[in-house]
Design brief:
binds adenosine-5'-triphosphate; globular; alpha/beta; Rossmann fold; 224 residues
Length: 224
């Protein structure tokens, strides 16, 4: 296992330590998504952030896990065609995935992999020279319509908004978008800029995930 493989696997905390504080935060995030959506059914959710290393992949994978833990049929899609990493998290070989479908090389069922009960994964597949063209294509719209039919929740991991347009192209076609903001790393101006870009792209911004905030012990927690 390479160093990066190890690192990414360790971030799937909601599977390994169901009862810990971080898992509880992800369950809160799951509830907040439901509250944020009122009576609109949010099925397709894009996870993005201003820059690289903010915690998008970690958030996407753990969110997928907590949705599956409440019995939802979940699909996690690695739509970061430039720097894919979902396959590291599940120890998969990224030899076939979303990109292979988008260029018409594979059927949708041939790229879906079952990793846990209730969670399927689609890795990014081959590396294309033109991600925005593929992600803004009719094939991508068809892909989103198809997976909406097959799953209760579809989570898209994407590249950073300030670097490339890829995330906004998917957010435009999805039910909701979550902006991951890493404390002490992301500049407020950059966060505002990303919010504006997502808004301009027609994304339904559900809210922000504040990643890396110091944990404050709550004296008033309720223990079973
Ligand atoms: N709150 C946190 N505390 C400690 N480590 C974290 C935290 N959030 C993320 N990390 C680690 O930071 C690294 C980057 O996280 P991740 O890969 O999820 O970011 P990303 O936004 O997807 O980056 P990229 O844009 O490069 O794909 C990973 O090694 C991850 O395990
Ligand atoms: Mg990532």
């Amino acid at each position: 296992m390479r160093k990066r493989d190890k690192g990414m696997r360790g971030t799937l905390v909601t599977m390994e330590r169901v009862e810990n504080q971080i898992s509880e935060e992800f369950r809160s995030l799951r509830s907040n998504i439901k509250f944020a959506s009122f009576n609109k059914n949010i099925k397709t959710i894009v996870i993005t952030s201003p820059s690289s290393g903010d915690g998008k992949t970690m958030t996407a994978a753990n969110l997928a896990m907590v949705f599956s833990q409440e019995g939802k049929k979940v699909l996690l899609v690695d739509a970061d065609l430039r720097k894919p990493s979902i396959h590291y998290m599940y120890g998969l070989v990224n030899d076939c995935g979303l990109c292979n479908f988008l260029i018409g090389q594979k059927d949708i069922n041939a790229i879906i992999r079952s990793v846990y009960p209730n969670i399927d994964v689609i890795t990014s597949g081959l590396t294309p020279p033109n991600p925005p063209e593929l992600l803004g294509s009719v094939q991508m719209s068809d892909f989103i319509s198809e997976v909406r039919e097959q799953y209760d929740v579809v989570v898209f991991d994407t590249p950073p908004v300030l670097a490339v347009t890829d995330a906004t192209l998917i957010a435009n076609q999805s039910d909701g978008c979550l902006l991951v903001v890493r404390v002490k790393k992301n500049d407020v101006k950059d966060v505002i800029k990303v919010k504006e870009q997502l808004h301009f792209a027609g994304a339904n911004l559900l809210g922000a995930v504040i990643n890396g905030k110091k944990q404050v012990k709550n004296e008033y927690y309720y223990k079973k």
